Amino acid sequence: MPLQPLDALAARRLIDTGGALLVDVRAPDEHARERIAGALSVPLEQLRGEAQAAGARLAGAPAVIFHCRSGQRTAMHAQAL
């Protein structure tokens, strides 16, 4: 599936209508300190190391929107995500 960058408004619309799942790829402590309401915490390490388990958590989502604090981690790992 091709990657499609989204602006915040388009992402919010997809999430609000059930068209996408928001996934925070930051470390658990970062997610605990500050997060977007409704975002599912699936750290990059878990996505890389336990792809099957992480995949089960994301299964059934029509689309997945990955995010981190600045966008840098998400951009660096976009192809793997």
Structural notes for this entry:
With 81 residues, the protein is α/β, with parallel strands linked by helices. The protein has one domain (8-76): Oxidized Rhodanese, domain 1 (3-Layer(aba) Sandwich). Helix content is 42%, strand content 12%. The protein has helices at 8-16, 28-33, 44-49, 51-58, 72-76; strands at residues 21-24, 40-41, 64-67. It is globular and about 30 Å long.
Main β-sheet, in a few words? 3 strands, parallel
Strand order of the largest sheet: 2-1-3
Shape: globular
- N-to-C order of helices and strands: HEHEHHEH
What is the first-to-last residue Cα distance? 11 Å
The Rg value, from CA coordinates, equals 12 Å
Q: Mean pLDDT score, rounded?
A: 83
Low-confidence stretches: none
Q: Assess the beta-strand content as a share of residues.
A: 5-15%
Which percent range fits the helix content? 40-55%
- Give me the CATH superfamily: Rhodanese-like domain
- The CATH topology, please? Oxidized Rhodanese, domain 1
How many domains? The number is 1
Label the structural class: alpha/beta
Number-wise, the strands total 3
Known CATH architecture: 3-Layer(aba) Sandwich
What is shown here, in short?
The protein is of the alpha/beta class. The chain has helices at residues 8-16, 28-33, 44-49, 51-58, 72-76, and strands spanning 21-24, 40-41, 64-67.
